[in-house]
Write a structure and sequence with these properties.
Helix content is 83%, strand content 0%. It is built from 2 helices and no strands. It is elongated. Helix 1 runs antiparallel to helix 2 (29-52). It is an all-alpha fold and 54 residues long. This is YtxH domain-containing protein. It comes from Faecousia intestinalis.
């Protein structure tokens, strides 16, 4: 149950951050860095899920 709550909170935080990032201009350095961070988090989660699959 704790993992599910953590993942739900993580997902909500990422959605909120993504919404704010979409409001920034495309050429903004902040937006580019936020996209890099989001991509890294997504890759980490994908790797973790792949390790959990039997």
């Amino acid at each position: 149950m704790q993992v599910r709550s953590f993942l739900l909170t993580l997902g909500l935080g990422m959605a909120a951050g993504g919404t704010v990032a979409l409001m920034l201009p495309r050429q903004s350095g902040v937006r580019r860095e936020a996209q890099k961070a989001a991509d890294a988090v997504e890759q980490t989660i994908t790797d973790a899920v792949q390790k959990l699959k039997p």
